[in-house]
Design a protein that fits this description.
By secondary structure, the chain is of the alpha/beta class. The chain is built from 13 helices and 8 strands. 53% of the residues lie in helices and 15% in strands. α12 links the parallel β7 and β8. It is globular and about 55 Å long.
C-alpha cells in the first residue's frame, strides 16, 4: 500500500524522531511511504485564530501537496481532525470544494490507520515499563479515537498500561489557549500530571506531541518524574 505522510509543525520542528518512528512502523506493516518535502502546515493555527483567509491559502497548498489517491497518514489527531472536519467548511462553494472533501476522506491519524485500514495491531514491539495513556481532545472529539491506541499498546510486550483518573479531561494546551490563558492552562496541565503520576506509571503516552509537550513541561516543573512518549515511539521498539 502506498502512503503519503504528513509531518505536523510540532513534530517537524521539535520532535522529528516521532516522524521517523512512524515511518519505521508503517514500513514494517508493508507500506511504501512517500514524503513530499514541500509540505508545510495544515492551516489549523490561523484558522483557529480567526484568520480564515490566510488559513485558506495554507490549506490550498496542503491540497496541492497531497494530491493523488494515496492515503495520508499523520502522527497527530489534531491536524487530522482539522483537515477532516474543517476543510470542507473552509472550501464550501469554492472550486476546491470537491478536492477538499476527497482529501478529508483520505487522511488518517496513525493509530486509526493501523487498526482500521491496515488491520494490524501487533508489530512485535517490546517496551518494558508502566505507562498511562492521555486521550487528546482532538483524538477523542475530532477523530473519535479511543480504543485504537490502547489496542496497539496492549500488544507491546513488557508494557503495563494503567488508566488514570479523568483520562478524557483536557490537558490544558489547546494551542494558543496555553498562551492567552496561561494560569488556567498550567492548572489543567498540573492536574493531568497529578492524575498520571498517581497511577505509578513511568511513562505517559499519547497520539499528539502538542499535548505531550505541555504535559512534559508541567511534569518537569512539578518534578513528577514522568517521561512523555508518542505512540509511534513505543511501537517502533522492535
Amino acid at each position: 500500500m502506498n502512503v503519503q505522510i504528513f509531518i505536523p509543525c510540532f513534530v517537524d520542528q521539535l520532535y522529528p524522531g516521532v516522524g521517523f518512528n512512524m515511518v519505521k512502523v508503517l514500513e514494517k506493516a508493508g507500506c511504501t511511504v512517500s514524503y513530499n518535502p514541500q509540505q508545510t502546515c495544515c492551516g489549523q493555527p490561523a484558522f483557529n485564530a480567526g484568520f480564515w483567509g490566510e488559513a485558506k491559502e495554507v490549506c490550498s497548498k496542503f491540497l496541492a501537496d497531497f494530491s493523488g489517491s494515496d492515503y495520508i497518514v499523520a502522527p497527530s489527531a489534531s491536524c487530522v481532525g482539522f483537515v477532516r472536519n474543517y476543510y470542507t467548511k473552509l472550501f464550501e462553494n469554492s472550486p476546491e470544494s470537491a478536492l477538499a472533501k476527497k482529501t478529508a476522506e483520505r487522511v488518517f491519524e496513525f493509530s486509526e490507520f493501523l487498526i482500521h485500514i491496515l488491520k494490524v495491531d501487533d508489530f512485535g514491539a517490546t517496551f518494558n515499563g508502566k505507562a498511562t495513556y492521555h486521550d487528546s481532545c482532538a483524538g477523542l472529539r475530532e477523530c473519535k479515537i479511543k480504543s485504537e491506541p490502547r489496542q496497539l499498546l496492549s500488544k507491546v510486550k513488557g508494557l503495563e498500561l494503567i488508566e488514570m483518573n479523568d483520562v478524557e479531561t483536557c490537558c490544558g494546551f489547546g494551542g494558543t489557549f496555553a498562551v492567552k490563558f496561561e494560569p488556567i492552562s498550567v492548572a489543567m496541565g498540573d492536574q493531568k500530571v497529578t492524575n498520571a503520576a498517581a497511577t505509578g506509571a513511568e511513562y505517559i503516552i499519547s497520539t499528539d506531541m502538542s499535548c505531550l509537550m505541555h504535559i512534559d513541561g508541567c511534569n518537569k516543573n512539578k518534578e513528577a518524574g514522568l517521561k512523555a512518549l508518542h505512540l509511534a515511539d513505543v511501537l517502533a521498539n522492535f
